[in-house]
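Example record for the data management plan.
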Amino acid sequence: MPLLPGQSFAGYRIVRQLGAGGMGEVYLADHPRLPRQDALKILPPGLSGDPMFRKRFTREADVAATLDHPNIVSVFDRGEADGQLWITMKYVDGTDASYLLNSHPRGLPAGDVVAVISAVADALDYAHGQGLLHRDVKPANILIAGAADKPSVKRRILLADFGIARPIFDDTHITSTNLTVGSVAYTSPEQLSGTTLDGRADQYSLACTAYQLLCGATPFANSNAAMLIHQHLSVSPPPVSEKRPDLSGQVDRVLSRALDKEPARRYSSCEHFANDLASALRSGAAGATLLSKPTPAQPASRPPQPRVETSQPQRSAPHAPGPRSTPTPASRPAYTPPSYTPSPYQGPTMPRSDGKATASLVLGIVSLTIGWCGFALLTGPAAIILGLVALRSSDRASVPITNRGAATAGVITGILGTVAMIAFFILAIVFGDSSSTT
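Corresponding structural encoding:
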């Protein structure tokens, strides 16, 4: 049940609720000692009670608190109260990118997309250099500080929700929390399949965000989370120019590379992706911006001028766009996905999911379902052994959350299958002796 204004939590006095989602509720709250207001995020009890999640939350919140970047929302404190984990961040008075999309459902001006993606790319590359992945980049987590009706006030772009240790290997969170379609729509294939993660997973999510900011729709739109997962894993997204014809084919090629199913075929950094996207957009769509007054086009030999006042250093595009004409929709050549040379990546990675827990669960189910035919004599003990081996490693913070659950289920089903087999043979012997006696 949401907290009401005036209530206290962990010493903070609740002012009002700012939002709610699968990862918890966010409140504007008065600091217990300092004369300021913070954004207080309270995580759900189900996650707070998970020992593995708690370890990862503590580790990542501590790392996030050390991040010092103009485009990252600062983390102030963390703790636990009433059995629930909480974290406080700087309160940003403004809006978010998803709100801008609500008022511009067909996409934002190209200049605004460049400003947002460039700022977030800077933030992500900085965090990756500090060994931290975000894993939930989406418009709702991109905050825009400052009032839209006050053009004289600088509008900063900030990425929020660093330090929240999301259960990245836990498939159950797709249905057991409010994350469902909301976050899956931006999630990389490797994150959905539980394989090794690095900064290019965040790049994929950033590309999904850029796609939506440009045309108002995510690369894959489906109300069914399972279908979304299938599309991220196996289906190529439609070119964004099909939904927004004023964009050039170069924009399609840039997004196609950043959205490649294979991480090695994406850009080596988020900055590289943002620079190429900025160059492609400058060669195509134009128009007034929402975040600031538009600036005149600059010669190709000069660095691009920012279209919005932000606090990050000015970015220089590696490829100066030359003169070109944008084809009209009727004359646009057919789009074909390009091929790329894999980009070397040096950055933080997340561990690969262990297969022993899954094997234990499968063998346990087999022993339980067909134990009557004697297979449980082999599959039952094997499930128990594999499950125990997986459980022995589950105290490491780097071990996926689902390993522990799958291993425990494997041990239990293995025991039940073995017991069922023994009971079956005992009954067979008893009834066999009875029939022979009669």
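Summary line stored alongside the record: Residues 401-437 form the longest helix (37 residues).
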